[in-house]
């Protein structure tokens, strides 16, 4: 965190400087084995980015103050509270304590205990930085619009004079095996009992890891997996299963989870899980199962490599290989290992590693115990000062005289010219039945993405049966008139394709990710799912149960609770948006939906005369159109009328107030507030959106800086303008520490009021926002998925295909006064309705000082 708050030659928030240069996909994370920092920047801003990175590597400590340390300590503690405030939020602590012995370097959580965070001193920070953050313990990756010679020259310029730290010391970490099976039961505010099975297995360089990963995919990771077929589809005793590996350098954690269907005997399900695993270990996987799992892995890797940076792109893939394996090409070897794996190898690896003693954890509905809460402190014990067994004192740094002195002042380089966005040409066509097609080529990797979009969405739900849209889309790939759910899952896996259906507020979409060589067959699968859903009675009841469990789970999650409560308060009973923003509907609505309702929804909304097909990727319109005609061209609309939505408001009063939802023992309060603006999505309110960047829409916005950076009361806070077609709400979001709930609302209200009255946009804020928005445009449409989303947004609200190319000049013409005018005309700060989810006995006394009426609410449906 402190690495983001200024260095000696670039003081102030680092992310503000990244926004200035149009950085996208930027972040910093730390985990068991590594800390990484990454950003994607316009080529003309590369020197500026390298200067910033080199300055915080070579010249950080002179800018680290006690005030910064204390502020970021509070931010990290709120990040910890936020994670633990979620259902199953204490599981990781229990897993590490059970699986790993005292003194093992992986046994303590990355975020640490409150005591550790409180005890961290300025000296501790300085020592840690000097020991671990030198250039000789770092890997730097440049990926994208650059060649080797240019890269070497630039890196030498910016990093060449940074003094090396002590030689990095390897960490000794075994792959332990439990002496015997270990069982533990925890209770938490959860909707469904979750069963865990965990083992410690080899790290990323272990020869068996690809086979272990494949074994888990076959058993519980694939949509066609043995566990899903048996427990979810056939026996209907579970609502979800997973099986995967969390890979680390020295070891990995293998995990199987089962979410037990509410009302089912969890102990019996656990025994059934163990019996299925024993049978699988005894018999092993089939060749078809291994091939499907390997194909899915290959397709996922190809999809990730379309991106330059981010969490899964080229840069991080090369960096992980170099850091963990001293081999940037490690991903190639991994893919080869997946492709070459045989059923015998996968079965043997599964028996070897998953046949060992297991940690069985059950998390059941109930109140968290004091002992379980204590796990979140420190598995070594609160306030422990001993050095664990794996710790080695760092080697002494070289004498100062042996290293060249670093320059005392380094000038920030200018940004070289950056060309405005060149948005790919969008081609238009129509199928013979009238379905509009939009296509844009993006050939970075051999994949194609398709979205069949319908003017429907959650807003098309019948208010008496909220959840109809969600249940309809959930069932599309659960069986057609020609394919069973299992056959659909297996066909996707063989093709390396993915078919997914879902709803935004305004649209229902059925999407396809396809490998180019398999595009025709993948489109055949997509068309069958879109056109011929079976809505088989057994599948309807199974998915209904899953949806009801999802709703129950949302009622235990602070953010989801607020998202369910707020929209009806804003939009009222008549407007289509006055429904839970989670998109899952209501318990009573989902229970009331019949198979006839699902068929009627499909006939009314998911039909060719209500559809547009959007396509991006490595193909051409000439190649694509015959394939689409083959699969969709003969689709005829039913005789029933096409659906339509009526956007209207009721006359109910919407007075500003606070609705408090009690969540006992919550370590944080979730604050979500909203007010309807005077703008619709079809107004294309670009100036209002830019003004929101200043208020709360960016990491350097006023609200974020106040609650997170100045006060340290929240890990994240801000405002947003959701991208809906009709009336747009302004939403205020702030998960804050419990004892600062009232003060946080007061501070947020003041920040918003100031911005809309006496303290409008400054020229510096306007310039930072405009420059950042213009420079970030080229990086915002890097992948075929980005491009597809942009085309769909333009279509939804009626913008031209080249809208994003016109944005730079639109931005340049905006003034600070334009920002203020747009915000003040659209936003009524006095109308905000506040929903607070937290521990009522601690929060309620704080709210009197806010000066708004307070209601204690309940979330019934």
Question: What is shown here, in short?
Answer:
The chain is of the alpha+beta class. Helices cover 42% and strands 16% of the residues.
The chain-level structural class is alpha+beta
Shape: globular
- Weakly predicted, low-confidence segments: 378-407
Q: According to CATH, what is the class of the largest domain? A: Alpha Beta
Strand order of the largest sheet: 10-11-15-12-14-13
User: Strand tally, please?
Assistant: 21
- CATH topology call of the largest domain: Cytochrome Bc1 Complex, Chain A, domain 1
Q: Major beta sheet, specifics?
A: 6 strands, mixed
Over all CA atoms, what is the radius of gyration?
28 Å
| N- and C-termini, Cα separation | 40 Å
How confident overall, as mean pLDDT? 94
- Proportion of strand residues: 15-25%
Q: How many domains, in number, for the residues?
A: 4
Helicity range:
40-55%
Separate helix tally: 31
CATH superfamily of the largest domain: Metalloenzyme, LuxS/M16 peptidase-like
Outline the structure in words.
The protein is of the alpha+beta class and 861 residues long. It contains 31 helices and 21 strands. A six-stranded mixed β-sheet has the order 10-11-15-12-14-13, with helices on both faces. Strands 18-19-17-20-16-21 form a six-stranded mixed β-sheet, with helices on both faces. Strand 10 (427-430) and strand 11 form a beta hairpin. Helix 8 (209-221) packs across helix 14.
Summarize the SSE layout with pairings.
Elements: E1 6-7, E2 10-11, H1 14-20, E3 24-30, E4 35-40, H2 46-58, H3 66-84, H4 91-99, H5 114-119, H6 122-132, H7 148-159, E5 182-188, E6 194-202, H8 209-221, H9 226-234, E7 238-247, E8 251-260, H10 266-283, H11 287-304, H12 314-325, H13 330-340, H14 343-354, E9 359-365, H15 370-375, E10 427-430, E11 436-441, E12 447-454, H16 468-476, H17 485-495, E13 498-503, E14 508-515, H18 519-531, H19 537-554, H20 558-571, H21 587-592, H22 595-605, E15 611-617, H23 621-632, E16 658-662, E17 668-680, H24 686-697, H25 702-710, E18 718-720, E19 727-737, H26 741-756, H27 763-776, H28 784-797, H29 803-813, H30 816-826, E20 833-838, H31 840-847, E21 854-857
Parallel strand pairs: 5-9, 11-15, 16-20, 16-21
Antiparallel strand pairs: 1-2, 3-4, 6-8, 6-9, 7-8, 10-11, 12-14, 12-15, 13-14, 17-19, 17-20, 18-19
Helix pairs in contact: 1-27, 2-7, 8-11, 8-14, 10-14, 11-17, 16-19, 16-22, 18-23, 24-27, 24-30, 25-26, 27-29
